[in-house]
Structures are given as structure tokens and as C-alpha cells.
Specification:
77% of the residues lie in helices and 0% in strands. With 137 residues, it is mostly helical. It has one domain (29-131): Up-down Bundle (Four Helix Bundle (Hemerythrin (Met), subunit A)). The longest helix has 24 residues, at 58-81. The chain starts with a helix and ends in a 6-residue tail after the last helix. 23% of the residues are buried. Residues 23-27 have low confidence and may be disordered. It binds heme C.
């Protein structure tokens, strides 16, 4: 018994380390390689997205949609690498919403396109609420 207490159980320590490393806490994700320039582009674009659609400016709406699609595809692959399943899920919803917008713009359904576009900032925010350090928006 005394022998056991003296010798640290390496297997238990390793098991504990594995649990700590896989815990889904914000601090576990190292964001140093994150593309914040892209995020700022998204921020500008998302502001024009719905207005471009309601103005029935299809070309501008398609350009906005492309930037946003690239953004959500970037976050999908970035957070896949980090093993953050909830962020990947949000990114996939983003891709879907933007594709809905594009389909509706192509069909000249601007009301439906605008409704889908209004979903976009909620998806940005739901990821920021979980993963963006401080000042979540
Ligand atoms: C799946 C997660 C995720 C999605 C989706 C996402 N973001 Fe972010 N965003 C982040 C994270 C994480 C940070 C913080 C990165 C850091 O601290 O280095 C961030 C940072 C930002 C920043 C701050 C950039 C800076 O200058 O520091 C802006 C602006 C931003 N996002 C806008 C957006 C907009 C607009 C959208 C939607 C169109 C969006 N983001 C979608 C995760 C996401």
C-alpha cells in the first residue's frame, strides 16, 4: 500500500492528461493561426448582404455570397482541424444558408433570399459566443 502511494501511477497520469487535452473549453483552442483578415472581410460583406438583396442587385448579392461562402468554408476546415465539432456544424449551416440565398437570387425570389440572408449574422454570432475570446458579437 505504501509502495503504491509513493510511486506515481503513470498510466493514471496519462489518462488524466488525455482527458484534460480533449476537454472542449475555449482555452483549448489555439487561435494564433486564425485568419482575422478574412473575418474582417466577412464583417464588411455581411453588412451589405441583405441590402444588396433587397435592392435586387443580383450581381452584388452573388459577390457578397461568394465571400461569405469562402468564409464559412474556411471556418469549417479550420475548426475541423481543431476538432471543434460545434463550430464545424455552425460553419456548415452557414454554407447552407448562403447557398439558399444564391438559389433564391438565381430564381429572382428576393424576399426568400433576404430572409435567408438575415440568418447569416446569427451564425457568425453563435460561433463567436462559443469560440471568440472576449467581446463576443
Ligand atoms: C465557426 C466559427 C466562426 C464563424 C462561423 C465566424 N467567426 Fe468570426 N471569429 C471566430 C473566432 C474564433 C474569432 C476570434 C479569432 C482570434 O481571436 O484570433 C473571430 C473573429 C472575428 C472578428 C474579429 C477580427 C479581428 O479583427 O480581430 C470579426 C470582425 C468576425 N470574426 C466576423 C465574423 C463574421 C461577420 C462572420 C459571419 C459572416 C463570422 N465572423 C463567422 C469564429 C467564427
Amino acid at each position: 500500500m505504501i509502495e503504491l502511494l509513493k510511486a506515481p501511477r503513470l498510466d493514471l497520469l496519462l489518462a488524466l492528461a488525455a482527458v484534460l487535452a480533449s476537454a472542449p473549453v475555449i482555452a483549448a483552442i489555439d487561435l494564433r493561426d486564425y485568419d482575422n483578415d478574412l473575418m474582417r472581410d466577412l464583417d464588411k460583406t455581411v453588412k451589405y448582404f441583405e441590402p444588396d438583396i433587397t435592392a435586387q442587385n443580383s450581381d452584388a448579392a452573388r459577390e457578397d455570397a461568394q465571400v461569405l461562402l469562402d468564409g464559412f468554408k474556411y471556418t469549417e476546415s479550420y475548426f475541423t482541424k481543431k476538432g471543434a465539432a460545434d463550430a464545424v456544424e455552425i460553419s456548415r449551416k452557414g454554407v447552407k444558408v448562403v447557398n439558399d440565398v444564391l438559389a433564391n437570387v438565381d430564381a429572382n425570389n428576393f424576399d426568400a433570399a433576404a430572409a435567408a440572408a438575415r440568418e447569416t449574422p446569427n451564425l457568425c454570432k453563435s460561433c463567436h459566443d462559443i469560440y471568440k475570446p472576449r467581446l463576443a458579437r
